[in-house]
């Protein structure tokens, strides 16, 4: 419907035309990583084939070109997130590194005994472990925010847990386990009333709906390029300028200094102060191409299409005998996590793989969230804009055959 056709978008993805185990690939592991359009693959080939150079130093033509490409990528990320400008964007390896940067730079300076960091039980390990580490280092307390049965963050409990002790709240903009989309703007406003900062993990959100960090009033916002049709190894952290300006570097090295003597180093202004060493220049080139590709689509029509596909998949899966979908909150995107009676999730994934269908089985880097449902492992089918109703039919047919063969 609308101005979007999954069938025509599929033509941009060479990998979707391969076979796996003799069957056409059905890629339903998009929450782990998305595939790359040829626009990204071609941008990488062009960069490495004709434009490769380090940046910011050598005073030669190609160094200047690479610097321009790198900084154009930063400006594109700022636009994509609704940030005021490129100076608010730090390049990182991905969401995990962004959270660790905030924990080690902002957290170490601002947390101490008597302080709380609130993290919903639903969160990815990358929103739990870095805060657990910095809590141990600083004496702060890591406080889990419970979930409702439906898999939503318990908003009453959240309100009760917020206090003058709260220094930071870390929330995913969309859950990688359930696809739930919490009311981030409201939760942020509540946290701000207690003078707490909010870090939003956008890893699962950015590929599915437009984000505006200033509308959310997020203090920090992180995402990974590879879940957004871009290469692995590149991602971005947005930080409010007044926060970033006060943050000390978390890694030292080249590119992040103003002057160095053995006695003392003075640092470059942000964001460069946060980017020690040679960055992933090719990754930024690929990310820029991915953002240009994605934003050239009618994103409202994409969201309508994905919503329709999700509803279709939800209903079709619910009809498979013995299949139980985990979490039933209505506001969710792209992720269907399930168990199949009498089947180990790993065996389910293995069976589907023989039909060329890629899903993930395991704890999805969210052991506390699965434990909430009394599970250690589950199967997860996660959708992207290039998936089709026909692919959902193949998933359902394969699961039905598995149940019949059991
Ligand atoms: N947060 C969420 C919600 C995720 O889904 C993921 C990836 N599964 C991450 C963080 C970590 O992303 P990365 O491994 O790219 O750093």
Description:
The chain is an alpha/beta fold. The protein folds into 2 domains: 6-30 and 298-405, Alpha-Beta Complex (Aspartate Aminotransferase, domain 1); 42-295, 3-Layer(aba) Sandwich (Aspartate Aminotransferase, domain 2). 40% of the residues lie in helices and 17% in strands. It has helices spanning 6-10, 38-50, 61-81, 95-110, 125-138, 155-161, 184-193, 213-216, 241-245, 281-295, 299-318, 345-354, 367-372, 389-405, and strands at residues 19-20, 23-24, 26-27, 89-92, 116-120, 141-145, 166-172, 197-201, 220-224, 235-239, 257-260, 265-267, 323-325, 335-340, 357-358, 360-362, 378-382. It has a 7-stranded mixed sheet with strand order 4-10-9-8-7-5-6, with helices on both faces. Strands 13-14-17-16 form a 4-stranded antiparallel sheet, covered by helices on one side. β5, α5 (125-138) and β6 form a beta-alpha-beta unit. The mean pLDDT is 96. 4'-deoxy-4'-aminopyridoxal-5'-phosphate (PMP) is lined by residues 31, 94-96, 124, 126, 172, 176, 201, 203-204, 224, 226, 365. Residues 31, 94-96, 124, 126, 172, 176, 201, 203-204, 224, 226, 365 line the site of 4'-deoxy-4'-aminopyridoxal-5'-phosphate.
